[in-house]
Design a protein that fits this description.
Elements: H1 2-15, H2 29-35, H3 40-58, H4 65-79, H5 84-89, H6 91-109, H7 118-128, H8 134-137, H9 141-144, H10 149-201, E1 210-212, E2 215-217, H11 229-251, H12 262-284, H13 296-309, H14 311-327
Antiparallel strand pairs: 1-2
Helix pairs in contact: 1-4, 3-4, 3-6, 4-6, 6-10, 7-10, 10-11, 10-12, 10-14, 11-12, 11-13, 12-13
């Protein structure tokens, strides 16, 4: 077919090889499986392209040129190589899904059986547009049935574009939040490494040993500060924060959003727990709880509790992330 041959030509130009084998011209998954066998989002896009292709093949009449163009753009996006800048910007993923949705909008709006597809269209649009949105109200039978055929198709096209745009904006918001969490995590990592390295080379720069009467309590158990004190405290803080990570995994709802936040949230929790363990011991140096922390074991236990205490602050981030991801859940297909 013309669309497949155009995709093949584009892929050949960019990679120097023909990703579509002879006899697989209607199987959109072939080039993707060859070049990106472990990419789940690419397989999802390909599966949607397969559905669009099946509907095109069943059509007796012609299909708008915009459908073929959009499918070609989506296919080229899933075939492009991944790189750190592309991953960070989400350009391949978002270009592919926006093109697939464009093809879906035009194909549905031009359907010969538009009236029969209206229940599915209304369900799809109602998931993404507010109840008072004029585009959604225009789909109500009392309004829609009184329109001309051309006007009905325009109303459907406009409503689907609105619903898909809402999904695109929500997915972009998830990606933006993911990138901010990653940058914050890198900042926490740099702080942890800097504090650990400086203190390891200058044991008395950061006083982490507690004085209890005639006894000196250091994190590593020795009578004097050592280069390993800060590293040991940071490790105990991470261990305490790992309990909060388990809680995060248990309460996070499954999601089909192409961007994931949970691993990056977990990293922030662990790194923040490490910092709080060190800061908490410094607070103890001011004389607080000196009757409670009297041994190395109690000092380590205190560091574990401080590591878990980051949950108080990061729980707000977890709740916000849940809301952003929930808004980005994709609509049901209009097919």
């Amino acid at each position: 077919m013309r669309v497949v041959s155009e995709v093949r030509s584009s892929a050949v130009e960019e990679s120097g090889v023909d990703p579509v084998r002879e006899g697989d011209e209607r199987d959109w998954s072939v080039p993707v499986e060859d070049r990106h066998p472990a990419s789940a989002w690419r397989m999802s896009v390909v599966e949607r392209l397969q559905r669009l292709q099946a509907e095109i093949d069943q059509r007796d009449g012609g299909v708008p040129t915009a459908v073929h163009t959009a499918m070609r753009i989506a296919a080229r996006a899933v075939l492009l190589k991944s790189s750190l800048p592309r991953w960070y910007s989400g350009v391949n993923l978002e270009r592919a899904w926006r093109a697939v949705h464009l093809a879906d909008e035009v194909l549905v709006a031009s359907s010969p059986d538009l009236v029969g597809r209206m229940p599915a269209i209304r369900a799809t649009v109602s998931r993404k547009l507010p109840g008072k949105d004029p585009r959604l109200k225009a789909l109500e039978p009392a309004v829609f049935d009184g329109l001309s055929a051309a006007a009905q198709r325009e109303v459907v096209l406009t409503a689907l574009r609105g619903a898909h745009q809402s999904s695109h904006d929500a997915a972009t918001a998830v990606r933006s939040l993911r990138n901010r969490i990653i940058l914050f995590g890198l900042l926490l990592l740099a702080i942890n490494i800097a504090v650990g390295w400086l203190t390891a080379h200058h044991e008395r720069m950061l006083p982490l040993c507690l004085v209890n009467g005639a006894n000196t309590i250091c994190p590593t158990g020795g009578p004097n500060p050592t280069s390993g004190d800060v590293w040991w405290l940071q490790l105990m803080g991470m261990l305490g924060a790992s309990i909060a990570v388990v809680v995060l995994l248990l309460r996070t709802k499954p999601s089909v959003v192409p961007y994931t936040l949970t691993p990056y949230q977990a990293i922030v929790k662990v790194l923040l727990g490490s910092i709080l363990a060190v800061v908490g011991v410094l607070v103890l140096r001011a004389g607080l709880l000196h009757d409670v922390v009297t041994t190395q074991a109690s000092l380590i236990a205190f560091a574990l509790v401080l590591g878990y205490s980051q949950q108080v602050g990061t729980r707000l981030l977890d709740n916000f992330a849940d809301q952003v991801v929930q808004r980005a859940q994709p609509s049901a297909t209009t097919e």
